[in-house]
Amino acid sequence: MQNYSLADTYIKPLDPAEHELALETKNLKVFYGDHEAIHGASLQFERYKITALIGASGSGKSTFLRSLNRMNDLVDKARVTGEILYRGLDINSDKIDVYEMRRHIGMVFQRPNPFAKSIYDNITFAPRRFGEKNKKVLDEMVETSLKQAALWDQVKDDLNQSGLALSGGQQQRLCIARAIAMKPDILLLDEPASALDPISTSQVEDTLLALKDHYTIIIVTHNMQQAARISDYTSFFYSGTAIEFDETRKIFTRPQIQATEDYVSGHFG
Ligand SMILES: Nc1ncnc2c1ncn2[C@@H]1O[C@H](COP(=O)(O)OP(=O)(O)O)[C@@H](O)[C@H]1O
Ligand SMILES: [Mg+2]
């Protein structure tokens, strides 16, 4: 059986009309054993926008997000059904090369998790594994991604220091730089600032706002002010269902569903 290669689709010139959507799910369900954790989510993610996924703890935000680049493949007894469409391909198909797909749909986790390696090696690790050997290309990649992650000025004089020696906020921006070094289309972030102090949080938020010129961003956050500050669209998850999806300002000012209203006004969660 022939494997689909996302690399083939990657070089296709972008037709803005065709690619207005960066990603779309259709009737996406996620099961852990017999437990259905996501009950058929059909969401559309617009290109070069930030979409926030909000909702109480346990409502399925992380489960949904992880399915978008098949991180649930790694979770014991997890099963995903339905479609996840990326450039016309269903990434949930058995034929997809998962490692190749993750170059296009990257992820940043809740806790900063730099490798116990230098800053330089953190960023070049994956590109090298994918065969990039040219020192000049790698140097440029390090500089560009650190600049985009708003970390370059702080670390440029010592790229050989360990990523673990950085502050929490810097580590998280290093993880963002590491993710964007692969030039993904889409960046998935699961509560990327929840382990950070307010100053680092605001630096990460500024970084994400600057990145959306080049990337489509989907971010889980339990921080509603954060969703309101940075996102264009918001989806409210309630008990495994994405019950409301709209422009962020509408979700926060005129939600259509009572449960959303209760949540954003602080009545539960
Ligand atoms: N690895 C797992 N195994 C079994 N159940 C899980 C696992 N991860 C999450 N769940 C369950 O799925 C539901 C959604 O969890 P989660 O996606 O982590 O929610 P959120 O990110 O919104 O807090 C919860 O009922 C949770 O207990
Ligand atoms: Mg979560």
UniProtKB/TrEMBL annotation:
Segments forming domain ABC transporter: 23-264
Zinc as UniProt keyword: no
Pfam families: ABC_tran
Keywords, sorted A to Z: ATP-binding, Cell membrane, Membrane, Nucleotide-binding, Phosphate transport, Translocase, Transport
A single MF term (Gene Ontology): ATP binding
PROSITE patterns (alphabetical): ABC_TRANSPORTER_1, ABC_TRANSPORTER_2
Protein name: Phosphate ABC transporter ATP-binding protein PstB
Organism: Lacticaseibacillus mingshuiensis
Gene: pstB
